[in-house]
Amino acid sequence: MAQADGQDQEAVEAGDEIIVTARRRAEDISRVPTTITAFGAEMIAERSIATQSDLQAAVPGLIVRETQSNNQLNYSIRGQTVDAFSGSSTAVVPYVNEVPFVAGGVASFFDLQGIQVLKGPQGTLFGRNATGGAVLSVTAVPTDRFEGNIKLGFGNYDAINAEGVANIPLLEDKILFRGAFKIARRDGYIDNVYTGPVFNGNDNSELGKLDSTAVRGSLLLRPTDGLENLTMVQYERTRGNNSGTRIFSFNACGATGADGSVLACGAHFLFGPQLDANIGFPGAWAAVLAANPGYDPAGIQGVLARQNNQLGFWQVNDAMPSFHRGHDLAVTNTTTIDLSDVLKLKNIFGYSRAKAVDSTGQTGTPYILITNFDINRPGTDALRNFANEVVNRSFSNELQLQGSAFNDGLEYIVGGYFQDIRTHTIFPQSYFGLVPVIPPASTTSNFRTKDRATAVFVHGTFDLGELMGLNDVKFSIGGRYAWEKISLDHLRGGTFFGLTTPDAKFDRASWNIGLEYQVRPELMLYVVARESWRAGGINGVAPPALSATLTNTDKFRAEVAQDFEAGFKYNGYLGGMRARANVSAYTMQVKNVQRALFPTNPVNPALGSIAITVNVPEARIKGFEAEIGINPTNWLDLGITAAHTDAEFTRNIARPFGVPTAFGPVADVPRWSGSAYAVVTVPLDGDASLRVRGDVYSQSSFFFSNTEFSLTPGTRLPGYTTANFRVDVDNLFASGLGFGVWIRNAFNERYFVGGLPLGGSLGINSANVGRPQMYGVELRATF
Questions:
Q1: Which is the CATH superfamily of the domain at 2-254+297-782?
Q2: Per-residue model confidence (pLDDT) at position 644
Q3: Residues in Cβ contact with 15 at an 8 Å cutoff, skipping those fewer than 6 apart
Q4: 566 CB contacts (<8 Å, ≥6 apart)?
Q5: Residue 607 dihedral angles phi and psi, to the nearest 5°
Q6: Contact 122/111 with Cβ under 8 angstroms?
Q7: Looking at the DSSP assignment, which residues form a beta bridge with residue 351?
Q8: Least C-beta-crowded within 10 Å: which of 86, 100, 284, 468?
Q9: Residue 704 carries which DSSP code?
Q10: Nearest to 51 by CA among 127, 118, 140, 137
Q11: Of 428-432, 544-548, 678-682, minimum mean pLDDT range
């Protein structure tokens, strides 16, 4: 069993099958009773999946949301996500080699064996309990052959990409090594027309620059039969800068929300010719313009008009410095021991350290409305910093016992899990740069959180044909109990240093129960019900409760999700054509929904916006998802995907700081999304082949704020449709040489991919633009 284990992690095409490990054992995807989308190495290359963002067009119902920039990403599945600047753990957990990693940044996909996307509550089979799903990526495992490949790519925006792999068997079948690297460079795709001086002398004329280098080494040891140890070490360094946001809407002073509440309007009140009358100081705006070259004299209303009517879609007028620096180290180690023919012991260890330093515009304006630096600190102060800085360190360990009994009538897994996460966060901010009339306010959040989680779990699948004579029927049941403790310390130099917040402790069960019926070898029906949760936490950038007049908002409660899913999977022939179908429908109820809110600081309103996580009492999400593919001939592959997601807050009043706040609609959930593709494969002379692929992705409109109907109107992003094409020629003259040409967003669709809703505090909302048309060529050699 140990020898096969390195391979059973993959999601690869095996003839007409795709092998996945959604239930911690290798199975054909058409026999797994849950909604899952999987890609093997060839499919990843064919679809040009290079980062998390590329998954959205390939996975029905998956949204990859940008909030502040292209370097701040989060997954959303079935309405479950984690908001930017939230203290929540992620609702959709990313895994590498079965090890959970902290979400939020950008990771390079290279030399992968497979990617699997699981939907719905998770808990009885995977390391961390989660309410939305999991994204599993598996790095390529060393093999017993000396082989490798090299890829070199060039594209517009002066893009250069290089990848390489070398697989080296050091001792036949005993010590195997695999090394890989990826280098990616690209100029920015957003032109910043700001003409004034940039704080800290930063060059922000081009935004969205990419500069990353990643290296990986994997070592597979098989000292004896039945014992295997696989270690992977990866380091990635990223530079470049952030795409930032562009102004999308603002609240005019005196305007009210749909619920009748008076809207915050700081941006409109202070930035424009109206400043003179608003503060009773004739000549105030003229004085501000004289002292701040680059400020637009037309005011906030003029900036929005210019953005929409004069600037190009991929242009912005933003005064803020923009840079990104990242360092990511990841280590995974998996040991498997065959205790018998039917029993295996498996240990999975993981360690990661990720550091991200980011400065970027948050409003897309030529004004200092909000910054990533504390302008009032002296230049020698270490916390002046000019950027948000987040450092995560995590280590985890999971011990499993996998086996079967009763002549394979029962397959089971039982285990325990531990994870310790330490996070140091520095968020320096300044607000309202109106020198010399009004000095800017500033604040710095400087805190460290500790998150320690432990769990025990068990899951079993019973073959009722073997046990009870109910042929082709299987019953699954699983349970998990988890404990989590979170603590937070405000550190020296932070605004809340000296104030204390009690620890937060959570514990709860998760469960899974399902029934599957293999009607025919090619058709399976299933139903499954699940419940899982994610821990609550502590709001590090919110003021700890200072008096009885303020409701304690420094903590938030655990979120609990329960769902019911029914579906069918087909993998066979219809009318003589190869056909595949994965179709499911679901309904989910979520209680104490964790959502971020950006209100005015209630302790000192002059300090502007803060970010807190609150609990919305209840949400209901229902919908369906479908993936269908056919092969009319052996040279043509056609497919479509579709997802319908209907999400709403059924009890929508939260009470941050004791103030009733209406939530709705559910953000980051387009009601409709889907894709279609066609692949033509033509054999050429010798063993060469030509492959042409076209993809179209479309989604309906969605909101980037959860309080559109109350605090933050003006956050609806329009729907869009993009098209991608790729042509590949492989194994020219039986030499292992090949090349490809590709184009993404072929028709240069203008679209948005997320936003930052600061309307509830600063009276302004900004949005992130998607990538423009990008194209390139790739040269390949395999040896």
A1: TonB-dependent receptor, beta-barrel domain (2.40.170.20)
A2: 98
A3: none
A4: 526, 527, 528, 584, 585, 586
A5: -80, 0
A6: no
A7: 331, 395
A8: 468
A9: S
A10: 137
A11: 544-548
Distance from C-alpha of 10 to C-alpha of 27, rounded to nearest angstrom? 10
CB atoms within 10 A of CB 244: 27
Cα end-to-end distance, the chain, whole Å: 30
**Three-state secondary structure call for residue 268:** helix
CB of 544 closer than 8 Å to CB of 498: no
Q: How far is CA 566 from CA 134, 322, 532, 676, in A?
A: 19, 47, 18, 24
Structure-block tokens of residue 239: 């530079």
Structure tokens at 169: 């068997």
State the DSSP H helix or E strand holding residue 2, giving kind and residue range, or none if neither.
Answer: helix 2-8
pLDDT (0 to 100) of residue 547: 42
* DSSP code string of 60-79: TTEEEEESSSTT-EEEEETT
Does position 71 have pLDDT exceeding 90, yes or no?
A: no
What are the phi and psi torsion angles at 223 (to 5°)? -65, -35
Distance CA 30, CA 581 (A): 8
Give the pair of three-digit tokens for residue 31.
Answer: 């026999």
| Residue 595 to residue 552: CA distance in whole angstroms | 16
The structure tokens listed for 769 are 């633009």
Instruction: Provide the total of helices (H) and of strands (E) in the chain, helices listed first.
Output: 7, 44
Neighbours of 398 (CB within 10 A): 23
Query: In this predicted structure, what is the pLDDT of residue 603?
Result: 58
For 588-628, the pLDDT digits (tens) are 999 999 998 887 666 555 555 677 899 999 999 999 999 99
Q: Distance (Å, rounded) from C-alpha 155 to C-alpha 781?
A: 19
**Residue 380 carries which DSSP code?**
T
